[in-house]
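Course assignment 3, question 2. Fill in each field.
Student: A.L.
Task: Predict the tertiary structure for the chain below.
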Amino acid sequence: MKKNDKPKTKAGEELSFPISLGFGPNANSSVADVKKGKIVRIRPLHFDWKYDKKGFNPWKMEAHGKTFEPGMKALIPPYSLAYKKRVYSPNRILYPLKRVDWNPDGDRNMHNRGKSGYVRISWDEALELIAKEIKKVIKEYGPYAILAQMDGHGEMKTVHCAHACGTRLLDLLGGYTLQTRNPDSWEGWYWGAKHVWGMEPVGQMVPDTNVMPDIAENSKMLLFWGCDPETTPWGFDGQMASRLCYWWTDLGIKSIYICPDLNYGAAVHADKWIPIRPGTDTALQLAIAYLWITKGTYDKEYVATHTYGFDKFEEYVLGKEDGIPKTPAWASEKTGIPEWTIKALARSWASNPTTILHGNGGPGIRVPYSSENGRLEVMLLGMQGLGKPGSHQVKMIEWNMHHQQPMPVSSVSPYPSKASRGYMVPVVWDIKKAGFGHFGRGMTPENIYPKQFIPKDLIHDALLKPPISWYGTTLCLADTTDQFVKYTYPAKGCPEVHMIWTDTPCWITCWNDSNTYIKALRSPKIEFILAQHPWMENDCLFADIILPINTKFEEEDINMDTGNGQFRIMLREKKCIEPVGESVSDYDAVCMIAEKLGLLEELTEGKTVQDYIKLGFETSGLQKLTTYEEFEEKGYFVVPTDPKWKEYAVGLRNFYDDPEKHPIKTPSGKLEFYSQGLAEHFPDDKERPPVPHWIEKGEGHDESLSSERAKKYPLLIMSNHGRWRVHAQCDDITWTREAPTCKVTGPDGYKYEPLWINPKDAATRGIKSGDVIKVFNERGAVLGGAYVTERIMPGVVYMDHGARYDPIVPGELDRGGAINTITPHNTTSKNATGMVVSGFLVEVEGIDLDELRRKYPEAFKRKYNPAAGLRFHAWVEK
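Answer field:
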């Protein structure tokens, strides 16, 4: 392997490097200014820095005498501007580590994972130990005894991909067990809405071409349903969603926010905030349908020609099936929304072209039985003529994934997938073909499924109580019919897992019931855990060997920014600084392991990093517009807008105009109010019946306020995407941690994760802002800092997911605010293998910090950086 060349600079000269600082499909084109080998600032990329903007063919939206155009700089969020604080975080892993009481030739002390400290070892010793363990596991159990946890939530890189570089090596060794990424941002749509309107791959509306201009011209009301356009899009697309919201307000379009909290978007843009209890959206939707049916205010002609099974849906809504009409009064008791508000919303929707907007993975779509509200949303849109001018479902995020691109399209969507040595997310290739690519392991829909796999949200069950079975691979590439296929672990002829290799060590703070997952990591059957990561956090604390990994500033790469909503861009990311400590890239770490195993040449295919960068360019689509030499010299390229962008059909307009000629992908080709697929394969499923139902309590979940459990845990908690981080990333940025909505400083100087609580609920518990509190249920407890505010409705509390885990008692009590440690264990429903991480019961109480400190002195003595939080040396013995 060739090491990356140092950036060439004269003494004291400042250099500027284009770089993409997105955290999903990539956005946030930035420039890193470097002086004397250090990053001194990060700023937005100005698109016309090295090009004439006339060549961009900038688009222009026009509506009601007003115009909206792209700017000439990237709209990057605060944590992109502050990302240098992550690069130089005191929590960076500086060198290889071995758990102090893990002896591969003796007692491995698996039960001490999460408690033991670490000692520094050399790279050579680390590689020898890793190679030895891999050979041992394969010899004793076979290659499928190695679990590859190598999917999302990390820096977006290409050659040095943060995820799945290791699967290529494991393929060469004979295979592995794959952790399949459940559709964590789309659960209710994936397991529910797909059975109404198809919309492969994740159940959200596609195509959505030119929907944003159509909203401006034709919509009269926008329903931001669990959507926060001032938060969730930041890490994935930047802040273009914010600009759109301001423009829509300027056009006189009404914005209604339906969510338990007055979120950041609602605080700025809402004409009306409708607070709703978490997990009760289904009741509100049914009441709206009831009003439309009884008042005759739905589009009867559309329903007759574009839908299937409406009569069965009508019977349920009117109470003919169960004797309970789904009236506004009935819904008001469930949702906490006044009857008159429900009626007013239904009237306004029936009278005005209305679009529903989402920010992905909001709390409403990851609650118990979210398949039901996911389906009902589509049905309500259908009752008012889905696809007509101004009537759509659209996302304010990921404007380049899964065929979705509601903004004006570019002439080419650059995608350097052939450069990737790991995993890249699906993106749109060509609007005319509506195709998409997915790269990693040479993945295609035909060969994506390995011999043995485990859904990510079932890992704890698989490790602790095999055998297990479930429906659906849970992979986002899978067709709806895959949800009717039953899979098992261990697969036929395969062993159980005995080794874990993770480059995605954020399971604990982002997935379901991670206290049980922690028990699985400490199981004696898991003989070896290898983690590779830039920061000492979350799942790394349970590894036996930890490898230090670069940030993207320390590598040569090629990348794209295709989701910013302005222009599509590809970047030649040059190495900005030297590696911090002894860190290497994810790809280089895997190459070093491959070399120890005698497989380096096979892994690299004889190519250097530079070779792969050039290959990525030459197969990206960009080669049609510029030369590789110019791309190398300038460091980025802005793709011009497609001159024919206005000619492409708007959203589902073709289906609206002629459903027979343009059917959707359901058995009937129409919107299915009664799912034929569910009726055929799961006719007796009470948790996801053919017609969507309100489910107060079921076999898998009992998380409503009517539950007996609510007497002990009387509050519903919601968990959003974080305002000041992206999932588990950016929790250590010192600048943002100063914001009171990012961290609450306790009397001990520790910065606690905020728990929003209404003044009424705080008063009854004797809690005031700034108090250190405990939020808990029978699954465990998490500490936090009270943030008392009217911005959360009574009876509901709110804590973001993604805070870094800081165990006081591993698997029981967390100080860092990792709320996912106490989320429900069971999946969305019995036959829907999604996860539930919001809308569950808890209680909150104040705590005595002194008492906790006396009880757990070791945890409270752990080294801590008040500005950045957790620090690497807290776990490393000198």
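Instructor remarks: The mean pLDDT is 93. DSSP finds 27 helices and 40 strands in the chain.
Grade: pending
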